[in-house]
Amino acid sequence: MKLRIGLLLLLSAAAVGVMLALPPYPQPLEYHNFADQRCFCGIPHTLNVLSNVPFVVVGVWGVWYLVRNDHLPGFRSGAERWPYVVFFLFIALTGIGSAYYHADPNNDWLVWDRLPLAVAFMTLFAIIIAERIDYRAGMLLWGPVAILGGGSVFYWHWTELQGSGDTRLYLFVQFFPLLALPAILLLFPARYTRTGDLYGALVWYVVAKLLELADRVVYSQGQIVSGHTLKHLVAAGSSYLILHMIRKRRPVDTGMPGKRADLASS
Question: pLDDT averaged over the chain?
Fold first, then answer.
């Protein structure tokens, strides 16, 4: 256990070192100039706005599923579901904030796009620590890492207002979990089945980020749909896989090796 935690801490220290070694990087204003500028039925940037609806659907569905019953088969205790309630609440807020931003893309409104997703992502990070490494440690870290996620967005926006934008902390919050979470899943045994859904959610999120980068390339293929619109749909699909996981998973039998039981039930 100590060796595995040491490896995780080493990865964390390396990621922080890379972030600090990089120069401050402002938000490029051309980021707001998305490929699909079409307007339908009076809705500006229609597809980029409406493609956020799945976030709201998945978020509300997740909150409803978790709060309607104290005894869910996917949790060892009722208390474990509350971090997931917060996760899905902020997924729903991501859909609202992103739709708001895409109606008139600019740095000020981008805050409300990024803020809920950053909090949701860091909440999920704390959940996985709690479920894989140590429950108490994950719950103690939950507040600080969620504040770090939200604070990274406000820090970026504050630096933009000062005329020296710095996205480094926000990018760290975005990309460090994509490195750390697979490492945690590989190094630490599962308390629940359905680990495959977590891997799937991470893969879908990576695909969403790639589609974001390929916004214009995708749109140029017939001008039907843009990469950014598809990014919203795929990222919402990633969130759905988390919901699917907690609905279908079961606690791993403590008498069986964690990884073997997990693979057998996935």
Answer: 92
